[in-house]
Amino acid sequence: MPGAVQIRSLQGIGVREVQALSDVLIDCVEGGASVSFMAPLPRAKAEAYWRSTSASLSRGERLVLTAEDEAGTIVGTVQVIFAQPENQPHRADLAKMLVHRRARRQGIGAALLAAAERSALGAGKTLLVLDTASGDAERLYARQGWQRCGHIPDYALWPDGTPCATTIFFKLLRD
Ligand SMILES: CC(C)(COP(=O)(O)OP(=O)(O)OC[C@H]1O[C@@H](n2cnc3c(N)ncnc32)[C@H](O)[C@@H]1OP(=O)(O)O)[C@@H](O)C(=O)NCCC(=O)NCCS
């Protein structure tokens, strides 16, 4: 990864971050990523998503990590979502792993994932779960020790409306 890239766990999501995170989300959807949104993703909808994520961060329900390039621009992000039933206090979901297309294949996804795992462990979580439709992401998770445990056909839609399968992964975290 380029030395100048900084990974941060956000304390809050202000106007600047909402705009930059929306840029990343819109770029990923334009690029065909299955990340809950259909194409084209209007900027207002992307910004509304990040504002609701900000409220959830403020309530302590999740962590939002970012990767910033040497100019201080957010080029990647990932979330650890804590809000779980009371019988799963040790578990969290990993979600919205997004790297802008212009910043890919430099190790930023791997750095975000490692930082998310450390942050989750630091918050007392020992089991992480995720689902992904992306072959690029599957290789990333497998390389970092995640266990693939199943494939569900027709789980969601690609941004263009065609059906999309998903693969479930988990990772047990240890000190
Ligand atoms: C999945 C995703 C987050 C990966 O992000 P990334 O920053 O490109 O990830 P990395 O750079 O760590 O790894 C990607 C590849 O680059 C390679 N790489 C890493 N550093 C490199 C370097 N310095 N030089 C050359 N290649 C490098 C990795 O080995 C990996 O190779 P692979 O494709 O053969 O597996 C990104 O593709 C993305 O945002 N996709 C769209 C959104 C999405 O689908 N997210 C998943 C939701 S679960």
Q: Overview of this structure, please?
A:
The chain has 175 residues and is α+β, with helices and mostly antiparallel strands. It has helices spanning 15-30, 43-58, 108-122, 135-143; strands at residues 6-9, 62-68, 74-81, 91-99, 127-132, 147-157, 163-172. A hairpin with a 5-residue loop joins β2 and β3 (74-81). α1 crosses α2 (43-58). A seven-stranded mixed β-sheet has the order 1-2-3-4-5-7-6, sandwiched between helices.
Name the helix and strand elements from N-terminus to C-terminus, one letter apiece: EHHEEEHEHEE
Strand content: 25-35%
Strand order of the largest sheet: 1-2-3-4-5-7-6
What value does the Rg take, in angstroms?
A: 15 Å
Total helical elements = 4
Secondary structure class reads: alpha+beta
DSSP strand count: 7
Kindly state the mean pLDDT as a whole number? 97
Given as residue ranges, the uncertain stretches (5+ residues, pLDDT < 50) are none
Helical residues, percent: 25-40%
Taking the alpha carbons of the first and last residues, their distance comes to 24 Å
For the biggest sheet, the summary is: 7 strands, mixed
Shape: globular
Question: Which molecules are bound in this entry?
Answer: coenzyme A
